[in-house]
Amino acid sequence: MLSFWYKEFPQYPKDHKDFWRTRLIAHSLLITTCYFLALTLLNLFYFASYDIALIDAFGLFISLGICIWFNKTANVNIASWAVTLMIVSLILMFVISVGGHAHSLFWATLIPPFTFFLVGRNWGSIFSAVAFAICAYLVYLQQQQTITIGLGSLFNLIEVGLAHILIFRFYEKTRFSAYTRLSIRNLEIQHLAETDKLTGLYNRQKFDFELSQLIAKDDVFKTPHCLLICDIDHFKNINDTYGHLVGDNVLTEFAKILKKRMRNDALIARWGGEEFTIILSNTSLNDGAKQADDLRKYIAENTITNIAFTISIGLATIQKDDTVLKLLERADTALYRAKNNGRNNVCVSDKDSTVIAQSTYLNGSIA
After folding, report:
1. Catalytic: which of 159, 274, 301, 329?
2. Whole-number Å distance between alpha carbons of 79 and 22
3. pTM of the entire structure?
4. CB of 74 closer than 8 Å to CB of 12
5. Sequence-ordered list of residues with C-beta below 8 angstroms from that of 222, at least 6 positions apart, any chain
6. What is the pLDDT of residues 312-343, one digit of tens each?
7. Are 235 and 289 within 8 A, CB to CB?
8. Reduced DSSP (H G I as helix, E B as strand, rest coil) percent helix, strand, coil of the chain, to 5
9. Which of 220, 150, 144, 163 is nearest to 31 (CA)?
10. Choosing a second label site near 262 at 20 to 30 A (CA), which of 92, 132, 222, 295?
């Protein structure tokens, strides 16, 4: 039954600006149909108010007609105006017909939430101003009159109260849903902003930020931290020989190997081109050099996408009074030396950017 009222329109997915307007139209039509049906029967058989029952019956058929038409056309703008005009005109017609008595003026409080949401703040302000002006005039006419609170007043208060609960429950649902989707979208945007599109690793911006945060810690030099810059040797030859698509595939598969073979807490990023950076926290110089050489040997002894290649790695540790630039320069100097020494090497720099250790492909050891 509810699928008839809350029809899914493919042209209005959840991220569409009019999705919640379609929901409010359906919500409004369901409320008005139920209300007008109950009020028609109540005024017809209980209060014997045939003129009011006629107004309610008119509202019932209008609600059903708009609902059927909207489900066929999915025209949000016209449906919004149709619902707005129906609600405003029927509420004012009822309030005026009873002269504002029996607490009927409370029905006018339903006009702002409907009109502001359906036709915007400008027209919502106009409709609300007109409705409240009419209500003020009716109150003016009732000055110094004795007000009798009867059963009709009680019903009006109960019905308006229930309508407000239903409307604002719907508004809260839209707000919560919008907030949830916005939070998810923000996380997606953040992920895109700090992730390399090709490899799925962190990008250079994210890496530089994390490295600067690590260096900024007061006691960072008390615990050893290693920085590795890893470069695929002769990567240009791979692109020239096999094409750039194959080269991209090599980078993607190499990134997967880095994530698989490095520790879970390692921060791995694509620094640019065929260069990758790795932060190994709580890792000594010897341990960092060993992990780097194990990675070097694994790449040298295996093929990736049926292509054999090697890598060179420069390694440096964080020192007291280090900056991001100084640390990167030391690691880059080590990488440069590794490449000049025939590639397929791991070289380590000390505080003065002097290479103090290197692995050799011949014996696979740090010497």
Report:
1. 274
2. 9
3. 0.59
4. yes
5. none
6. 999 999 988 889 999 999 999 999 999 999 99
7. no
8. 65, 10, 25
9. 163
10. 222
